[in-house]
Design goal:
This protein is mainly α and 181 residues long. It has 2 domains: 50 residues, Orthogonal Bundle (Arc Repressor Mutant, subunit A); 121 residues, Tetracycline Repressor, domain 2, CATH 1.10.357. Helices cover 74% and strands 0% of the residues. The protein contains 10 helices and no strands. The longest helix is centred in the middle third of the chain and has 22 residues.
Length: 181
Amino acid sequence: METALDTGQRLFHAGSYETVGLAALTDALGVKPPSFYKAFGSKSEFFAQVIERYAQSALALDEILLPGRAPADALAELLESAARTYVRDPEQRGCLVLEAARGNDGDASVIHARRVANQRRYRLREFIARTHPERASAVTDFVASTMSGLSASAREGMDESRLLGVARTAVAGLKARLDAD
């Protein structure tokens, strides 16, 4: 199962949900369509599993948003980790979740990706709200928008040092916002 999800992640990340057909998936997995459907239900359900797994492994929020940790420190680690992660593999640039969420509202793949992205934003907002309830929504929106920009810039070919510069500039703004009266 893990090997199949790895393969799916690689294919979807390099292309997109729309460009990876069932034939490409079954060929890469070495199975026939009936076996694929039996194991995963549908391409959409398989994609949902890939997205969920990616979200939990790419940037592990549980390891970053630790109770009692200063939000500025956690957000700095999150953004810098994103900058590094989004360019780590030249075949899988950007964030699979954020890039998949950019599609049409009614597409199943977009719905899955947005659900995962919104769950992560909710966790981030809850973390910030513990110490800065009045700023939690605005800071969460800023971080989410910055991460989306980092992902898009990575897909466009920006290198790690430039992405880290963007992340560090954003962190400076976040610290000022969190410390504001």
